[in-house]
């Protein structure tokens, strides 16, 4: 089976930026390791003068030049779309698997079966992050998303929350498959530094970094050894200023490690050292940060919104909190920091659950089964169309 995956893929596979890149880095090699499965990853990159190809753990990565057009316009009718279509004609895959917004750009009339993984809802992200022009861009993205979902016949949903939002807008067969975590996360040694609380992800309104700082400020005096680690890039100057103001206001400069974006090796080391992962986001679907922390055996304190409650068994492998209530967050952090045996028990439960749910080998096998379904249904529909054409002659 020849598989073409249209997604994001980082220049350096050890440094994915965002959940979609992390998923592709984990999934492509796991699929390529399966018998009789040839994997090609197609990705558009701005600033690239010419196309190139390379191999990453048995998967072939095709890097194609993206235009200066806005991303969605480029994929809908721009030079980027033409480059992808040309590469697909060259490869002639048995199935095309698209991720994120890319799945809404390819036409339903492709001569190949398609599978689309829906990772999130850009329309909601725009609103939650209060991005410029959100009043216009949010509704526009929602229209594009709905049109894209309606065209699909096979969709992979990464969380029940995603399935619920999709069902009203598509007749596609929806398959529930959670995101994979790179296998090496399961081998990270636990060298906990008691009191080390880590936040992983972009420093944005949606991720609620300020909320993490406000909660940490409430427990800092009770746990003098505690530190808050912020592992994520800043890309919104206005929100970044709010983060710095919160740190100054609570006089926490000496208690916070602001690491910026970290590569996979750094992230694994930090998770190995962490006592708790804190993710009080206002909007998430199935964040990779939670899956990766659970794979290492780190208990999680996460928001009770969107897809996160289906990832965390509250009181078993972590706690769910109200993201706009610093006192609630602080209470859960205190409960974990003040009870070593509880942290150990929850961490072990988290890792056990992650092995069953997120290991890339299991996810790859389930994904290949979806490919087989897509191919079978595609051939069946083409056969039915030929029979109808013959009968009308």
Strand content of the residues, in percent? Answer: 15-25%
Number of helices: 13
What is the total domain count? 2
Fold-level CATH name of the largest domain: Rossmann fold
CATH architecture of the largest domain: 3-Layer(aba) Sandwich
Report the end-to-end length measured between terminal Cα atoms. 35 Å
Major β-sheet annotation: 8 strands, mixed
Mean pLDDT: 90
Placed side by side, the strands forming the largest sheet appear as: 3-4-2-1-5-6-7-8
Given this structure, which CATH class of the largest domain is correct?
A: Alpha Beta
Helix share bin: 40-55%
- Structural class by helix and strand composition: alpha/beta
Q: Report the order of strands and helices.
A: EHEEEHHEEHHEHEEHEHEHEHEEHHH
Give the low-pLDDT segments: none
State the fourth-level CATH superfamily of the largest domain. Glycogen Phosphorylase B
Question: How would you describe this structure in keywords?
Answer:
Rossmann fold; 393 residues; alpha/beta; 13 helices; six-stranded parallel beta sheet; 2 domains; 44% helix
How would you describe what is shown here?
The chain has 393 residues and is α/β, with parallel strands linked by helices. It has two domains: 2-180 and 359-392, Glycogen Phosphorylase B (Rossmann fold), CATH 3.40.50.2000; 183-357, Rossmann fold (3-Layer(aba) Sandwich). Helices cover 44% and strands 17% of the residues. The protein contains 13 helices and 14 strands. The chain has helices spanning 19-32, 71-77, 79-91, 122-128, 134-151, 160-166, 209-219, 237-249, 264-273, 288-296, 326-337, 340-357, 360-392; strands spanning 2-6, 38-45, 52-56, 59-65, 95-99, 114-118, 154-157, 173-176, 196-200, 227-231, 256-258, 276-279, 300-303, 318-321. It has an eight-stranded mixed beta sheet with strand order 3-4-2-1-5-6-7-8, with helices on both faces. A six-stranded parallel beta sheet has the order 11-10-9-12-13-14, with helices on both faces. The longest helix is centred in the C-terminal third of the chain and has 33 residues, at 360-392. The model has no long low-confidence stretch (mean pLDDT 90).
């Amino acid at each position: 089976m020849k598989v073409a995956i249209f997604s994001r893929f980082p220049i350096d596979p050890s440094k994915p930026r965002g959940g979609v890149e992390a998923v592709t880095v984990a999934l492509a090699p796991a699929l390529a390791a399966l018998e009789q499965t040839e994997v090609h990853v197609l990705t558009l990159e701005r600033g690239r003068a010419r196309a190139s190809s390379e191999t990453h753990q048995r998967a072939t990565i095709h890097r194609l030049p993206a235009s200066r057009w806005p991303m969605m316009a480029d994929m809908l009718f721009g030079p980027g779309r033409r480059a992808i279509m040309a590469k697909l004609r060259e490869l002639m895959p048995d199935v095309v698997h698209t991720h994120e917004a890319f799945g809404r750009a390819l036409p339903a009339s492709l001569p190949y079966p398609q599978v689309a993984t829906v990772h999130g809802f850009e329309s909601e992200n725009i609103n939650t992050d209060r991005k410029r022009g959100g009043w216009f861009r949010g509704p526009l993205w929602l229209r594009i998303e709905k049109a894209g979902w309606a065209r699909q016949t096979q969709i992979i949903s990464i969380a029940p929350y995603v399935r619920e939002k999709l069902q009203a807008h598509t007749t596609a067969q929806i398959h529930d498959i959670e995101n994979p975590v790179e296998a090496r996360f399961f081998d990270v040694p636990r060298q906990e530094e008691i009191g080390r609380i880590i936040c992983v992800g972009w420093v944005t309104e949606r991720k609620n970094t300020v909320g993490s700082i406000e909660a940490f400020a409430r427990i800092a005096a009770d746990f003098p050894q505690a530190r808050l680690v912020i592992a994520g890039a800043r890309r919104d100057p206005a929100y970044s200023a709010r983060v710095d103001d919160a740190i100054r206001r609570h006089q926490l400069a000496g208690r916070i490690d602001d690491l910026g974006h970290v590569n996979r090796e750094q992230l694994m080391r930090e998770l190995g050292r962490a006592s708790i992962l804190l993710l009080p986001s206002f909007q998430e679907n199935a964040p990779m940060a939670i899956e990766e922390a659970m794979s290492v055996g780190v208990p999680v304190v996460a928001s009770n919104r969107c897809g996160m409650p289906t990832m965390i068994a509250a009181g078993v492998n972590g706690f769910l909190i109200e993201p706009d209530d610093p006192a609630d967050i602080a209470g859960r952090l205190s409960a974990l920091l003040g009870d070593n045996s509880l942290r150990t028990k929850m961490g072990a439960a988290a890792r056990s659950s992650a092995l069953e749910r997120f290991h890339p080998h299991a996810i790859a096998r389930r994904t290949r089964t979806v490919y087989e379904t897509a191919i079978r249904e595609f051939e069946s529909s083409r056969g039915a169309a030929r029979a109808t054409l013959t009968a009308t002659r």
